[in-house]
Amino acid sequence: MARPARLAPPAWLTEGLRPQPAPVPWAAVARASIALSAPLAVGMATDQPVYGALVSMGALSGVIGDTADAYRMRVLNIAVPQLFGALGVTLGTLVFGAGWTTVAVVTLIALVSGMISSIGAIASVSGLLLLLNAVVGAGLPMPDPWWLPAVLLGLGGVVVLVLTLLGWPLRRGAPEKASVAAAYRAVADVLEAAGTDAYEERRRVVTQTLNQSYDLVLGRRAREHGRAPVLIRLLAQLNALIPLVEAAPAANLRGRLIGPLPPEIPAAVRELAEAVEEGRTGAPELDLPEPERPAERAVDHALRYAATVVHKAEPNPYNVDDRLGRPAALRVRMRRTARAALLSEASWRYGLRLALCIGLAQALVSLIDVPRSYWVALTVTFVMKPDFGSVFSRAVLRALGTALGLVTAAVVLAEVPRGWWDVPVMVVLAGLIPAFSAKGYAFQTAAITPVILLLSDLINRQGFDLVLPRLYDSLIGCGISLVAGYLLWPESWHTRIGDRLADAVADTARYVALAFAPDRPGRPADQAARVRSRRRLYRDLSAVRAEFQRALTEPPPMGARAAAWWPLLVAVERIVDATTAARVRVDHGAPPPDPAEALAIERELRELSVGVRESEVLIEVRAELTGPDDSVLRPLAQEVRAARAIATPGPK
Fold first, then answer.
1. Contact partners, residue 90, CB within 8 Å, separation at least 6
2. Residue 293: what are its φ and ψ, rounded to 5°?
3. Following DSSP, what letter does each residue of 402-443 receive, concatenated?
4. Which residue among 105, 165, 304, 307 is the one 20 to 30 A from 476 at the CA level?
5. pLDDT tens for residues 551-560?
6. Cα separation of 344 and 186, whole Å?
7. How does 358-387 read in b/e, with b if 16+ C-beta sit within 10 Å?
8. ∠ at Cα 645 (643, 651), nearest 5°?
9. CA nearest 63: which of 38, 28, 88?
10. Which H or E run contains 494?
11. Residue 321: exposure state from Cβ atoms within 10 A (0-12, 13-18, ≥19)
């Protein structure tokens, strides 16, 4: 007799409720505790608890926005959003209690917030605070005059900024240096795993680490290299790692055939990581085995080159650039940013979705007497953030996180007397925000909820009666987000991941064409273009993988479709690796392939791209790729055949 299936929650829900294995950021915990509790203490001492609560609210915004590693980027991540937050609370305060005028103004702010949120990380936090503070200003009575709330909230951001910058004199440049060293260690790990089942996962870690390192280092790059010698050296060391990264796929292919690389190789790369972190210079000392095969020669040549650059005290500033190309001038980037916000279909689409949800929330609380109604729109603001993941799962997780946070808030509001006891309570609750934020969205919500409720109670003095209305408001906000922000938009439940994957396959075809273009004068320029193409492709594949992982948290049909297409994404990553391995082997002595063979592989990939774009089903097919058994492209052809066996054109 068959055993009945056990009832279990769906995978998309359990995935969101599973805490992420992230370390506790103790420095951030200490900053949050001080930044949110100190203003309360000052407010109590000066008999102005409302002022202290508003400064703590501004500090809360700074704590949420402090997500960067490099100090220069952290200044921008905290300071710039605070300006938008000050504008938001000012506009909200001016229309407080104005009826339908309040609805119209907050809805318009939501449209602007949604449009600028799609530009980038800093713009996303700025859009969040613009709308968040506008909702708070329009829903809570603020102290007079009208400009005072903006000043108090901004002062809270200044407190976080000052606490953040205390370590700058001692650790200036340390995050960037540690990031470059981490990239070297990640490459050492992937070389150690060459030929084993762990290689794929470690190669993805290398891609993520390189992306983070380039973002950190280039975020600090001055207008002229000559003014930043430390930055020049870090960028040169990071660039010197690229040939070693390119040699890794060839080493993996070699490892599958004859075994892992000698342990001296990953050990030497880890030694370079320590040299980067400690800033050591001088003649490098390498004791490496003699290379015999093309893959071994590629690793040996790249490792010796990296060692020379790492130990060089003063690299040539005119020969140092990132592998993604020099950034455009500031005015050009500002023009592109404005164009992206104003003319992008995605920008308008998200802005309209957010405006619709906020407009409905504000209209609802204007028509129905909802106590402290700002919480409804506040819930919509957090749930509808575009870069926080799936709207559907966020709505469910926020409801669960809010319920958990309200339990904590209920205990605090019922058992802790108002007054000076709020300060030690805030020390504990504020420290939980960065600690829990690293664990997942539901945990972050559970940590932020009691903090906001405690600060709201200091402003409104509603006490324990604040708890249950907050739960009802959260459920209403989640319901509005699910209906108006998810179900009414077909793109929410008809996934676009197939289009993103098709673009990645087409880019892979272009990379194959570039990697095996016939030799001609000006080859060094082609080499640089190939390196940039490979870096962009790996970065794009990393973004596609992140989008797939978000789609996996959606309920069917999107989650099921993402799971079905997932093997093809892995196959495309393997194709890129095989292409790089073949190119590296040719560069180090292997016979070059017949151009017709490379052209046939490129054609197969372009056909696969078209098929993925036009298909929503998976049909097994066999690709007919021919070529000599000893061809350097043989492993690449096998990977392409495997990918074509996963997906091919099918009916819509």
1. 137, 146, 147, 149, 150
2. -105, 165
3. HHHHHHHHHHHHHHSPSSTTHHHHHHHHHHHHHHHHTT-HHH
4. 105
5. 766 666 666 6
6. 36
7. bbbbbebbeeeebebbbbbbbbbbbbbbbe
8. 105
9. 28
10. none
11. middle
Contact 307, 598 (CB under 8 A): no
Tokens 């164009």 identify what position? 339
Task: State the Rg of the chain over Cα.
Answer: 27
Q: Report CA dihedral (71, 72, 78, 82) to the nearest 10 degrees.
A: 160
- CA dihedral of residues 102, 103, 104, 107 (deg, nearest 10): 120
Give the residue ranges of DSSP H helices in 261-373: 264-278, 294-310, 330-343, 345-367
Both tokens of 633, joined, read: 């492209």
Report which residue type is found at 455.
L
CA–chain centroid gap for 477, Å, is: 25
164-220 pLDDT tens trace: 877 665 566 577 788 888 889 999 999 998 888 888 888 888 888 887 787 777 655
Alpha-carbon distance of 79 to 60, in angstroms, equals 13
pTM (2 decimals)? 0.68
Token pair for residue 98?
């104005």
Find tokens 């089903």 and name the residue: 617
Residue type, 507: D
